[in-house]
Amino acid sequence: MSYNSSYNYKSGTEYSRCYTAMRGVDFSGDGSRISGNRFSKLENMWRDYDGVGAALTESVPGFRRILSLGKKIYGLHRQRAGGAEYLLVHAGNSLYRFAVAARDAIGTPSPIATLAEHKSVSFSSGSSLFLLDGTRMVRVGADGVAKAVGDGEGEYPPYVPTTYLNGEAYEQRNLLTRKFKERYTVTSPDLLAYGTPGMSYTVTDEAAGFCELSGMGRAAGGVIHVPYFATVRDRTYRVTSVGTRAFAGLASVTEVHIGAGVLSVGARAFSGCSSLTTVYLPAELTEIGAEAFRDCTSLTVIHFGKSLAKVGADAFKNCPAMTIHYAFGLAEYQEIEGAPVTETNTLDTLTWSPSLTVYLPLYEPASEVSVDIPGMSGYTVTNVTEGTHIAGVLLTLENRNFLKNREVLITGTLSPGEYSESDAGSNFLSEGSFTDGGASALFSCLCAEVFDGRVFLSGNPAFPNTVFYSARGSTGQNDPTYFGVLNYFNDGIGAFPVTALLATGDALVVFKKGDDGGGSIYYHTARETGIDLLPKIYPVSYIHAGTPACGGAISFFDDPLFVSETGISALSKQALNLERSIVCRSHAVNPKLLAEDLSSVVLDVFCGYLVAAVGGRVYLADSRATYRHDTGGTE
User: Fold this and answer.
1) CATH 3.80.10.10 describes domain 194-349
2) Which pLDDT score, from 0 to 100, does residue 474 have?
3) Structure confidence at residue 14 as a pLDDT band (50, 70, 90)
4) Domain ranges (residues) in the chain
5) What is the rounded distance in angstroms from the CA atom of residue 327 to the CA atom of residue 108?
6) Which residues contact residue 248 at a Cβ distance below 8 angstroms, ignoring those fewer than 6 apart?
7) Which helix (H) or strand (E) holds 333?
8) What percent of the chain has pLDDT over 90?
């Protein structure tokens, strides 16, 4: 196509010019700088590469109205699922979805979800689309069903991490949920025997690591548990004995469970415990001291283990109605030195109880917990609290042997506003006060991008410098509903917000609205750490200072573009030293583009064109019609 134009200047001289092979519009104020194949009167013209006529320059055909919702549009989102493409429209407080192929016969669609009247952003994960509307995250599945991501009934459940495995930090907490898991593989239940708080211990053999239970607070009562291990002066010792008079005279004690590490019960250890009814002695116990249970007048049941060899004098004096449960038969019982036999006591052989109460601590402060032992029954669960939080659970087992080599899974809910620090360092929850586990920090993000197989979110006005990224779940794959408390970084320290994120071939680029002294554009590359809890981080590899971003960013046929104060700019590299550089891509239209509200520019790609929509106008950049301008750059 060509165009003839005449100019009549004040001198009276008339000039004619013929434009051929026209490339597009040029709004430069200096006519001498306008390229010979660009013309200021080409508004509303384009080259239709898909039409008839070998991509002739022609008038833009205009737009067709395919849907009218009568509401403000807060976001347009694209979803590919099942070989089809869908458009999702966030209008007013509703989200609509329809197949692009059926756009001429949409009719009146029904909303698939209710959203906030707030700008929405989205990212794709497989065939699912996830949206953020400032108040929550919503997942739209391949079937078009939309569910909020959360812990509530009917919601799409986020990834629940196993924060501790056998007492060692295993996975990060998830900002999207207050739920967590802790797992134990129990090889020896006896080693986890619970110890009642308030007991005192005395070290008996420092080298061997042995100690003795030496006493109990006078106010203690109820059920007493003697543990396998105890901590003395920050060191762990095995409890091998209950000392002389350790519980003597404690009339409120009703039941005693002694851990498997204990080999002896000292003289008068429980004498005068007048309310004591039941005693469980371990199979490993070899000796009961003199008068150990004297005057335990309510004692009705005691369990002797198979290793018991000696019972001291008057160990059970004034225990008138006691039933002795013994692991072996009568002949073996009679071999025990000093075995109690009276007319009022009963011997029940082969009935020793293998019951045990174990304690599993929680490493996260919880408001509620549940316990599951796959394939096992015959246990009860009791929560152990510290203040208002659950600090651990007690498992009372009918048979300790059933727990051996089994996995115990504890699922809990974190107490609001109470989060422990991770061993890997400070976490995002230390950045502010949260009652929702930190989810609100993600919901208000205005930028989303996928890079290195992970989802990156940023642009929350309350956290202007923070970029979050998703973590890998138990399958080793990225999980878009798992944002670990350590998976974040900050660019800069000022109040200038992040306006866009863009994945390039080798880096994630973070664009900030202003220069806080540290830079406006940050490049991040992936680095392995060798730390299981935080296997990958994204440190800064390069910084551009002094080129503030104004709006969004997009990859236009591998050309990374963004809206800057100088128009549409591109990230480039110098040919010689590969240093990063920024070049302008919009010289020809800048006289008009720079008069627009650059923060409102929406970038997209359509039919091979870069589309910059703002203020009711559309600016097009043609990927197939580049030219070299007088500054040496290519547009």
Assistant:
1) yes
2) 86
3) low
4) 2-59, 66-153, 194-349
5) 78
6) 268, 269, 270, 271, 272, 273
7) helix 330-334
8) 55
